[in-house]
Specification:
The protein is an alpha/beta fold and 411 residues long. It has two domains: 243 residues, Peroxisomal Thiolase, Chain A, domain 1, CATH 3.40.47; 152 residues, Thiolase/Chalcone synthase (Peroxisomal Thiolase, Chain A, domain 1), CATH 3.40.47.10. The chain has a ten-stranded mixed beta sheet, with helices on both faces. α3 packs across α6, α7 crosses α13 and α10 packs across α11. The protein is globular and about 65 Å long. It starts with 6 loop residues before the first strand and ends with a strand. This is 3-oxoacyl-[acyl-carrier-protein] synthase 2.
Length: 411
């Protein structure tokens, strides 16, 4: 980022199907543990595809009854992960100029559970009145607003909704607030809690969900494998503290990684079908922003949803951008373990990318047993791999065509 301040990550927090601390998430990730399992809910028997990657999170253990009355699950995740990130960064409201601290958050569906509960009361139970806070719990900007109110953050507060790239866009745009000196600190990330009956049925109708692997349901998401059949829905949240390099050094903070580049582009071609050219433009934009040649990237945390079209398209886009170097890259899709967290996917995968840089250990693409001629790159299959990584790229692409790509530099 020429003529701007260097932007670094000094705090991380997470709620995920692989654990609700960064340490637990990282351990399970590198060991190839899958958080995908059969759902055990009161609507499970009405599902065609009864698997998902749910987070083991009980809001009653973390929030009062009064707080829960106004907090949808998506906001609970965000507040919990934000506190982790601030603690990890060694910051609190007293140590920050809160008027120069903002929060950017990505989500695909916001308070999906509150929306669905309202419809259920109206159309199923025949009630004429809803809970008074239904709108306030369901609105997409609720999670970011609750974070701002909880910590008194008077800086910019924005919610990005670009489907599966929402949190990558939120983090990338938040980095610009630091880079251009508009803010001292930014809380940035994404949250999603959409494992509701109506949402899952809507995804079933779209015919993009993975078929259940009856022998091993945990292995149902198989990115880049010839026998891949679709994505697995997940839920969770990841939040980051961003600040300038100089600020972090001055206060003796631990720097987890540096945000070296960020790029975004739109396919502008089809609402669901991904575009090689559009994805390539987003990756090239991130490289240009970082001032890097393709050959300087060592690792890509791919979008890698496990759908036949997405994985082949992303592979072709990587080849277009990286040329012969594409075959030297290490690539992995961690969605094979934590599922597709939609609006929170980019944030959770950026945690995975940061951990890979820190440990110099690449997370695996699990359940890749059958090579696909169309997907012929190195996908770090089935086992974490030690490798020297200086620069890593995290890809997020989406229905609607908006791609967000972030490049991290090892601290």
């Amino acid at each position: 980022m020429a003529n701007t301040r260097r932007v670094v990550i000094t705090g991380m927090g997470i709620v995920s199907p692989l654990g609700n601390t960064v340490e637990e998430f990282g351990l399970n990730l590198m060991q190839g543990v899958s958080g995908i399992k059969r759902l055990e809910t009161d609507f499970s028997d009405q599902l065609e595809i009864n698997i998902a990657a749910s987070a083991d999170f009980d809001g009653t253990q973390h929030f009062s009854k009064k707080e829960l009355a106004v907090l949808d699950r998506v906001s609970q995740f965000a507040l919990y992960a934000a506190q982790q990130a601030l603690d990890n960064a060694g910051l609190d409201a007293d140590s920050m100029d809160t008027n120069k601290t903002g929060c950017y958050l990505g989500t695909g569906m916001g308070g999906a559970a509150s929306t669905e509960e309202g419809y259920h009361r109206l159309f199923k139970e025949g009630q004429s009145r809803l809970k008074p806070f239904t709108v306030l719990m369901a609105m997409n900007n609720a999670a970011a607003s609750h974070i701002a109110m909880h910590y008194g953050l008077g800086g910019p507060n924005l919610t990005y909704t670009t489907a599966c790239s929402s949190s990558a866009i939120a983090i990338g745009e938040a980095s610009r607030q630091i880079a251009y000196g508009h803010c001292d600190y930014m809380l940035a990330g994404g949250s999603e809690a959409l494992l509701t009956f109506g949402t899952i049925k809507a995804w079933e109708a779209l015919r993009t969900l993975a078929k259940v692997d009856e022998q091993n349901p945990a292995a149902s998401c198989k990115p880049f494998s010839a026998d891949r059949s679709g994505l697995v829905l997940g839920e969770g949240c990841a939040m980051f503290v961003l600040e300038s390099y100089d600020s972090a050094m001055a206060r003796g903070a631990t720097i987890h990684a540096e945000i070296a580049g960020y790029g975004t582009a739109n396919d502008a071609s089809h609402i669901t079908q991904p575009s090689v050219a559009g994805q390539a433009r987003a990756m090239q934009a991130a490289l240009d922003n970082a001032g890097l040649a393709p050959e300087q990237i060592d690792y890509i945390n791919a979008h890698g949803t496990g759908t036949p079209l997405n994985d082949a398209t992303e592979t072709a886009a990587i080849k277009q951008v990286f040329g012969p170097h594409a075959y030297q890259l290490a690539i992995s899709s961690t969605k094979s373990m934590h599922g597709h967290l939609m609006g929170a996917a980019g944030a959770v995968e950026l945690v995975a990318t940061t951990l890979a840089l820190q440990a110099q250990l690449l997370p695996p693409t699990m359940h890749l047993q059958q090579p696909d001629p169309e997907c012929d790159l190195h996908y770090v299959a089935n086992h974490a791999t030690p490798q020297h990584v200086r620069y890593a790229m995290s890809n997020s692409f989406a229905f609607g065509g908006t791609g967000g790509v972030i490049i991290l530099k090892k601290s």
